[in-house]
Amino acid sequence: MRRRGEKIIKSRTGWRNADQVRKIKIVMTVIAVIVCISVASGAILVWAQLKHPFTKPASASVSGTVEETSSKSGALPVYDDSYNLMVVNASTPIKSDFQVQPGQLEGITVDTRIVPALQKMMDDAKSAGCPLKLTRGYVDAKEQDKLFAAAVQDLVKNQGFTQVRAENQVQNTVGRGGYNENQTGMAVEFAAEGETAGTDFSTTPQYKWLVKNSVQYGFVLRYTEAKTAITGVAFSPRHFRYVGSGNAVKMREYSMCLEEFAAYIHKQSPK
Hints:
With 271 residues, this protein is an alpha+beta fold. It contains nine helices and ten strands.
């Protein structure tokens, strides 16, 4: 800088430096504001997630019976959750007005509404080198009661169980007529194609493929080891239940069994 009389005049270089300092301050201020906004937005999102941790699944429709949805793997029917999420267990009988629409797949009777998804899943499993054999589907209530009674008598006669203990045991495996998912036509059981007697299905490639992929077709492993206390049924690796693909994906995401998920959806429904 130089002096003119009593005044101090800044050189061009000095003015340039001061201007750069002002620009840097402005940039830093803008950055600080952006950072503050980002932090605030993140905090709001976290709060919202904690406040409402679940979003309602896309498949949880309020009305309608069936519609078509398309995907890269082809169109599959989508049904209302009054059908998809019907719970039947030892304490909840099948609805008195429920009507199975019987159809056949590989000689096994199932509800015809699940046939497209079931057929697609089995075709894709075969293409993946994990061919499945359908071994069980719909069983009417009378036949289910016969199976229940036979299993009870086997425990009483051959293993020394009391009648009450045998009935309690069999309820967790076979189930009574009308209080068993087999009466819905939406429950199916599988074997690995060509498997021998005594095979532990949970060790097969078919089981592993199903556990990984079944939700994309609307099926879930119904009775898992982790949820026995809730379902009241022992782990059953062969038993899968149709719930709709949207619901199945969410059930896996939330780690919920059907009883838990159906209750959750009910709470989310508009009153």
